[in-house]
């Protein structure tokens, strides 16, 4: 049965108060997760299904989970727990990046064996490169492959206008991370990671950088901590040294752009005149996210115009339209 069928069966048996079918289906679902190698998810589900602390039992099942930390002054959550089901095959990058990501995953899986040799798996990873090249996406993929939820931390959410509150927020986030094993992403990390000597920086932000680095240094948990930035040039050497691995995402070359076009155009049938080589040569400077956006646009146009097949002309027009749009955007930014 597919995931959807299993879940439907669970709902039906719940409605019918048929606990036997419910448990059987739940077991089938756990097996289904195991076959997908989502062993941690399977373990969690097994625990949830067979736990003696059922929900009726005062909700004790949740006692091991700390509440999501919040900003004391404004009350908003400082992090988000996210779950994904993404495969590394959907990340189209040069081979070096895949090898680096796979190494992080494999070292995590073999951390016990590594420890017997007194070696530590890579836990603190810096992801840098231009916007839309797959940094956030990679964190989601690592979380998916390991079946460990992603703790998503947006740096601008942590920075508080109240003096001293930012450090408290960071402390709360690190305490939370330390309470379990997670894949953690400090996204848009450059908000605070700017060169500490920059005189324009606010004093509070400088303190936060130091604070963050100290907490990163002192962090002894099992979680994998990823930090993403697209202003790596502005990061000072002290930050680089703190990471076990730095993964650099470049804009895709022509060959990779063609792979991206082919990948993202897969859902639609194409005319025989489609030549993604030509399209790839026209998209110099496009990020993978840009290419995704263009292909989605062109597919939607074809679908709403009831075209059964996509033609070369439409693809080229969509690329040209995107290039014009970027020009306008760059000009507007230049005017500022
Ligand atoms: N290398 C890639 N291969 C396939 N799809 C990609 C790739 N990079 C980005 N994408 C697509 O574009 C979307 C946006 O990319 P993502 O959020 O990972 O960019 P980013 O590098 O984090 O950018 P930013 O610096 O702006 O945060 C992804 O969710 C994914 O769908
Ligand atoms: Mg991002």
Q: Can you characterise this structure?
A:
With 336 residues, this protein is α/β, with parallel strands linked by helices. The protein has three domains: 3-62, no CATH class; 80-249, Rossmann fold (3-Layer(aba) Sandwich); 254-335, Orthogonal Bundle (Helicase, Ruva Protein, domain 3), CATH 1.10.8. Helix content is 53%, strand content 9%. It has 15 helices and six strands. It has helices at residues 3-15, 19-35, 39-50, 95-109, 111-116, 135-146, 155-158, 165-178, 190-193, 203-218, 237-241, 254-264, 276-282, 288-304, 312-335; strands at residues 80-82, 124-129, 150-154, 183-187, 224-229, 245-249. It is globular and about 55 Å long. The chain starts with a helix and ends with a helix. The chain binds adenosine-5'-triphosphate and magnesium ion (MG). Residues 135-136, 187, 228 line the site of magnesium ion (MG).
CATH class of the largest domain: Alpha Beta
| Arithmetic mean of pLDDT | 85
* Relative helix content: 40-55%
Give the overall silhouette.
Answer: globular
Give the neighbour order of strands across the main sheet.
1-3-4-5-2-6
Hetero ligands: adenosine-5'-triphosphate, magnesium ion
Element string (H = helix, E = strand)? HHHEHHEHEHHEHHEHEHHHH
- Beta-strand residue fraction: 5-15%
Number of domains: 3
Number of helices: 15
End-to-end separation in angstroms reads 56 Å
Largest sheet at a glance?
Answer: 6 strands, mixed
Model regions low in confidence, pLDDT < 50 over at least 5 residues: 52-64
Strand segment count: 6
* CATH architectural grouping of the largest domain: 3-Layer(aba) Sandwich
Structural class: alpha/beta
Provide the CATH topology of the largest domain. Rossmann fold
GO molecular function: ATP binding; ATP hydrolysis activity
Protein name: ATPase AAA
Organism: Thioploca ingrica
Pfam families: AAA
């Amino acid at each position: 049965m597919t995931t959807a069928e299993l879940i439907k069966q669970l709902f039906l048996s719940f409605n019918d108060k048929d606990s036997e079918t419910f448990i059987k289906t739940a077991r089938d679902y756990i097996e289904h997760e195991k076959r997908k190698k989502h062993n941690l998810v399977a373990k969690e589900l097994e625990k949830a299904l067979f736990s003696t602390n059922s929900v009726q039992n005062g909700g004790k099942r949740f006692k091991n989970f700390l509440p999501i930390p919040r900003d004391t002054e404004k009350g908003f959550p400082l992090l988000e727990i996210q779950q994904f089901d993404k495969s590394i095959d959907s990340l189209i990058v040069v081979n070096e990046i895949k090898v680096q990501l796979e190494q992080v995953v494999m070292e995590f899986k073999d951390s016990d064996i590594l420890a017997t040799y007194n070696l530590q798996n890579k836990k603190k990873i810096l992801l840098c490169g231009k916007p839309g090249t797959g940094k956030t996406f990679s964190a989601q993929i690592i979380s998916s492959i390991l079946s460990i939820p992603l703790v998503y931390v947006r740096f601008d959410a942590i920075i508080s206008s109240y003096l001293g509150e930012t450090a408290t927020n960071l402390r709360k986030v690190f305490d939370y991370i330390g309470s379990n094993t997670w894949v953690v992403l400090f996204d848009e990390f450059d908000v605070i990671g700017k060169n500490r000597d920059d005189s324009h920086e606010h004093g509070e932000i400088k303190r936060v950088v130091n604070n963050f680095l100290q907490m990163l240094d002192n962090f002894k948990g099992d979680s994998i901590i990823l930090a993403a930035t697209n202003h790596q040039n502005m990061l000072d050497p002290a930050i680089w040294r703190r990471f076990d691995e730095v993964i650099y995402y470049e804009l895709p070359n022509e060959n990779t752009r063609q792979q991206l076009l082919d990948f993202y155009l897969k859902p639609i049938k194409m005319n025989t005149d489609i030549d993604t080589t030509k399209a790839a040569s026209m998209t110099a400077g496009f990020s993978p996210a840009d290419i995704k956006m263009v292909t989605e646009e062109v597919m939607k146009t074809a679908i709403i115009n009831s075209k059964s097949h996509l033609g070369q002309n439409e693809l080229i027009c969509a690329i040209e339209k995107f290039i014009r749009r970027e020009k306008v955007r760059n000009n507007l930014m230049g005017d500022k």
